[in-house]
Amino acid sequence: MNNLTKNIILTPFNILYKINPELDLEILFRLKVGYKLNLKSPKTYNEKIQWIKLYDKNELMPKYCDKFFVREYIEEKGYKELLNKLIWQGTNPKEIPFDKLPEKFVVKVTHGSTFNIICTDKSKLDKKDVINKCNKWLKAKFLPCYGEWFYGIEKPRIIVEDYIESENEYGLLDYKLFCFNGKVKCIYVSTSKIGDDSYAIDYYDEKWNYIPLKRKGHKSLGKIEKPKQFEKMVKIAEDLSSDFSHVRIDFFYENNKIYFGEMTFTTSAGFGKIDPYEFDLKMGEWLKLPNK
Q: How far apart are CA 200 and CA 112, in angstroms?
């Protein structure tokens, strides 16, 4: 379901959010997560994500949830070598220099998690389709009723980056490190599409011990090999997370090299069911919320 359709269906909630954001999130939370939201004394991870959306107005969040502007933060922290090569950036997709691009590359719109085009053979690329998709994505707004106020404040743009070639049978692995008050506590690893076009997601703790969690709609590969530079990845994530009460730092790891992916402050907008519920509570215990 695209954002336009969602916005139409959720119009009453978008209106309610403007009037009473707490009530809006309480209703959506019950519908999506399945239990009553407690904002006065949040206990679970998902409850605390709702609290962060409402009350944690960290001024850095709007800038560093953007895939272009976050590159500045990574450089300031001294990790320029983690950044994938930026080939081009701009706000008009008609200006993308297709003829000068390499045979393989990735096109991204910077304010969304699914606004990506992966090109592995430029000779087969439909340039008009790329331009149309980018124009559509640039206009896309995050659902107001979800309360993720920090998305889209920075003007969205298009970036073109190098394609990272993977030798893994499951494609490029995405390592997502959950940081709580500056400490990595758990990781989930996401594969590219497998077999029937589904994704596999598996969870680990900060010492790479496998955690048998279930994620609806996704498969599991079981335990995979720990990256050789895993400890370095953890150290970098903790450094990058030091300015935030909670953030998920994403990395790719290929050919013994770490690549920075993105920063996410409210994973699944706090509406992702965590099975078992006890782990939702455990993740909540890891997060100490700031003052309003």
A: 21
DSSP state of 156: P
Angle (deg, nearest 10), helices 21-33 and 45-55: 160
pTM: 0.92
pLDDT above 70: residue 2 = no
Where does residue 21 rank: exposed (0-12), middle (13-18), buried (19+ CB within 10 A)?
middle
Beta bridge partners of 187: 177, 204
Whether the pLDDT of residue 217 is over 90: the answer is: no
> For residues 257 and 16, is the Cβ–Cβ distance under 8 A?
no
Domain ranges of the chain: 3-286
- Fold classification of 3-286 (topology level): D-amino Acid Aminotransferase; Chain A, domain 1 (3.30.470)
CA angle centred on 67, ends 72 and 99, rounded to 5°: 100
Q: Are 151 and 142 in contact, with CB atoms under 8 Å apart?
A: yes
Q: pLDDT, tens digit, for every residue of 191-209?
A: 865 445 567 889 999 999 9
- Give residue-wise pLDDT tens across range 222-253: 888 899 999 999 999 999 999 999 999 999 99
Give CA 43 to chain center in angstroms. 23
CA angle 172, 175, 176 (to 5 degrees): 140
